[in-house]
């Protein structure tokens, strides 16, 4: 009986339709992507099946992130689940009273239309994040995050693609319409009818400075050394060094409504150095170099006040991590060209950072280098994102973060060595270009800033006071006086001296 009563009540609610400009109908499977500073324009239509009283109509553009984490005990049963929800964005469309029925009763069979216009903001308001440890983290948390974790929206247009996110983390945007009535008894707001339409948001993200990675970092490794032997039970051939630095970001194209046709690429550079145990020893033969991309989604059921890390994750039951790894490429590097160098002095490796190179651009010496001959080589590794997945930019929010890492594995053809011999793990970013509207807005802001500086210069105060004593004296040394200016030097007995025009 309760089920039937509920269905009857729902059937009597006014019908709400949300029409979005630039889309193919109300119920189309085609989803438009919106970027930073893009406009969301449309119309809300409300048709009541019978006379319906309401007090307020709210049309809003909202953004919400939701997470949940299962807490496990030492046994096989679950100890409970923690959940969190954060509404980080809410923009309300102003509605004039004259456009609403007077009194507030929607007449049966009549359709009421209300236009709306929203703009995807460049950043969130300060109140969206207030529990951080420093300004850098707050600036990251105030970036508008991308849509994430919704299989109905992930992808381009009508093409749905996996965005490599777990069900425990979701970021969604929607146009939300609510008809509200306040109860006469206690003034509490009740919802008469409501409707939401999902929106896919792909905001612009600029490339951030490279991460600072040192030798003790547990997440990444930008340099590795390994001893290469002549044979299984023979002496040492030398010491092989492999190192790299954080490459430029993968730059996603501007948001559009079609499937991407241009691959998203970047380039990594791998530096090699071989310090032979004997001057006559030659570098080992190289095998293959493979690259893999690790996608990590961090989520938490409490607001984070720092960037996510495995140190915190291991001791906090309210944090979760989901990772996937995709193969990018594998190529033979046997033909890599080694270059011979001779140094009369011992070069030692700096301890300031793993990715340091010497002043001449060569990799730093290995820990066993004692001077003399050494060899170097470099390998350029082209990287391309798979087109059968939907990648979102690197971002950090209060509850959810997405980061990427590049794993490079090098195999060496030496006796006793099989499989990948050496590996590096380097952070890599994914950035996103802005739409044409955002670029136009950025240029207008720059022009306005320049105009403001010029305007302030006009009204800048200038000193018109007499010169101080230290500048008073003989007029002989004054060569930049205005034409026909008479300068009197009180300290000089000379009565007066006139400087002619230039």
From TrEMBL:
**Gene3D superfamilies per the record?**
2.60.40.640
Domain Bul1 C-terminal residue range list? 375-430
Region (Disordered) residue ranges read 340-361
Entry superkingdom: Eukaryota
Q: Where is the composition biased (Basic and acidic residues)?
A: 340-353
**Pfam families (UniProt xref):** Bul1_C
The protein's matches in InterPro entries, at most eight in alphabetical order, are given as: Arrestin-like_C, Bul1-like, Bul1_C
Name of the protein in question: Bul1 C-terminal domain-containing protein
Native source species: Coniosporium apollinis
């Amino acid at each position: 009986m309760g089920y039937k009563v509920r269905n009857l009540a729902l059937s009597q609610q006014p019908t709400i339709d949300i029409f979005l400009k630039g889309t193919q109908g109300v119920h189309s499977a085609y989803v438009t992507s919106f970027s930073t500073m893009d406009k969301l324009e449309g119309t809300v239509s409300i048709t009541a099946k019978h006379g319906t009283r309401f007090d307020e109509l709210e049309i809003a553009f909202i953004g919400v992130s939701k997470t949940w984490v299962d807490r496990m005990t030492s046994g096989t049963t679950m100890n409970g689940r923690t959940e969190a929800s954060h509404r980080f964005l809410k923009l309300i469309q102003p509605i004039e009273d004259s456009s609403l029925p007077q009194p507030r009763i929607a007449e049966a069979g009549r359709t009421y239309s209300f236009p709306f216009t929203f703009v995807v903001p460049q950043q969130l308001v300060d109140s969206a994040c207030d529990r951080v440890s420093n300004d850098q983290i707050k600036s990251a948390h105030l970036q508008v995050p991308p849509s994430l974790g919704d299989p109905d929206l992930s992808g381009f247009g009508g093409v749905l693609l996996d965005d490599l996110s777990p069900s425990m983390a979701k970021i969604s945007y929607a146009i939300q319409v609510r008809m509200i009535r306040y109860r006469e008894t206690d003034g509490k707001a009740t919802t008469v009818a409501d409707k939401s339409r999902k929106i896919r948001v792909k905001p612009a993200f600029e490339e951030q400075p490279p991460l600072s990675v040192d030798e003790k970092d547990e997440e990444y490794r930008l340099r590795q050394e390994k001893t290469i032997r002549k044979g299984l039970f023979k002496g040492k051939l030398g010491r092989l060094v492999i190192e790299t630095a954080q490459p430029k970001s993968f730059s996603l194209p501007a948001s559009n409504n079609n499937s991407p046709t241009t691959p998203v690429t970047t380039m990594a550079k791998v530096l090699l150095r071989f310090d032979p145990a004997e001057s006559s020893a030659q570098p080992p033969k190289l095998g293959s170099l493979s690259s893999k991309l690790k996608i990590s989604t961090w989520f938490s059921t409490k607001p984070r006040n720092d960037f996510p890390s495995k140190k915190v994750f291991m001791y906090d039951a309210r944090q979760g991590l989901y990772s996937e790894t995709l193969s990018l490429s594998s190529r033979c590097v046997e033909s890599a060209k080694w270059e011979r160098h001779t140094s009369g002095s011992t070069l030692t490796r700096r301890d300031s950072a793993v990715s340091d190179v010497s002043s001449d651009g060569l990799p730093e010496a290995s820990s066993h280098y004692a001077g003399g001959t050494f060899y170097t080589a470099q390998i350029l590794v082209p990287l391309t994102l798979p087109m059968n997945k939907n990648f979102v930019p690197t971002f950090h929010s209060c509850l959810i973060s997405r980061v990427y890492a590049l794993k490079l594995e090098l195999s060496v053809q030496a006796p006793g060595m099989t499989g990948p011999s050496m590996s590096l793990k380097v952070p890599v970013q994914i950035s996103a270009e802005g739409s044409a509207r955002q670029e136009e807005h950025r240029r207008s802001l720059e022009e306005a800033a320049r105009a403001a500086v010029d305007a302030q210069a006009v009204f800048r105060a200038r000193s018109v006071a007499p010169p101080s004593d230290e500048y008073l004296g003989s007029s002989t040394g004054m060569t930049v006086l205005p034409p026909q200016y008479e300068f009197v030097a009180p300290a000089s007995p000379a009565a007066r001296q006139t400087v002619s025009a230039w």
